[in-house]
Design brief:
Number of strands: 2
Radius of gyration: 15 Å
Strand content: under 5%
Number of helices: 8
Strand order of the largest sheet: 1-2
Structural class: mainly alpha
Distance between the termini: 33 Å
Order of helices and strands: HHHEEHHHHH
Largest sheet: 2 strands, antiparallel
Length: 171
C-alpha cells in the first residue's frame, strides 16, 4: 500500500475527472472522500470485527475532521459514506458472488488483499445500487483509489473486474 501523498494525489485527480453535471466540484470531492472512507471503514471492520454502526459513528465523530499530511481533508458526504458501508454489509454475500464471478479461474476472493476486497465491494455496491451514478464515474473513482493503495497492475485488475461487474449489474 502507498503513502498518504498518493491518496491526496488520487483525490486531486478524481476531483478533475468526470462526474454527474448535477454535482458541484465540492459535492464531487465530498463523494470521493466518502468512497475513500468507505474503503477504509470496510477494511477496518474486516480486520477488527467491529460492527457497522460503531464504525459509521467513529468515522462521523472522529475521522472526517482529520487531515492528510497536515492539510485538512475535504468535507465528506457522510450520508453517502454511511450508505455505502451499510449497503456493503447488508449485501455482502451478493457482492462477493458478483466479484468472484469476475476473478480468474481458481482464484478465491479470500486470496485478495483485504483493502482490495473492501474497494471491490464498495464499487460493486455502487454499480448495483446507485444507478443514478454513471458507470464510468464509479469505475474511474475506484480505479484512482486503487492507484492510491496499489501498483498499476492492481489498478488495471480493478478496472477490468469493475468493467465486468458493471456489465453484469447494469446490462
Amino acid at each position: 500500500m502507498s503513502d498518504p501523498t498518493s491518496i491526496r494525489a488520487a483525490l486531486e485527480q478524481l476531483e478533475a475527472s468526470g462526474a454527474p453535471a448535477s454535482l458541484t466540484s465540492a459535492e464531487r470531492r465530498a463523494r470521493t472522500v466518502a468512497r475513500l472512507a468507505a474503503v477504509q471503514a470496510l477494511y477496518q471492520m474486516e480486520l477488527g470485527g467491529e460492527g457497522v454502526e460503531t464504525v459509521v459513528r467513529e468515522f462521523s465523530d472522529h475521522r472526517f475532521d482529520t487531515d492528510i499530511e497536515g492539510e485538512p481533508l475535504a468535507q465528506a458526504d457522510e450520508a453517502y459514506f454511511a450508505q455505502i458501508v451499510r449497503g456493503v454489509v447488508d449485501q455482502r454475500k451478493a457482492l462477493d458472488q458478483a466479484i468472484a464471478a469476475r476473478l480468474a479461474e481458481g482464484w478465491k476472493l479470500e486470496r485478495i488483499d483485504a483493502t482490495m476486497r473492501a474497494l471491490l465491494r464498495s464499487a460493486s455496491w455502487e454499480l448495483a445500487h446507485r444507478r443514478d451514478v454513471p458507470t464510468e464515474v464509479v469505475i474511474d473513482e475506484y480505479v484512482e483509489l486503487a492507484k492510491a493503495f496499489f501498483d498499476v497492475a492492481e489498478a488495471r485488475f480493478v478496472n477490468a473486474a469493475l468493467d465486468g461487474i458493471a456489465r453484469d449489474q447494469r446490462a
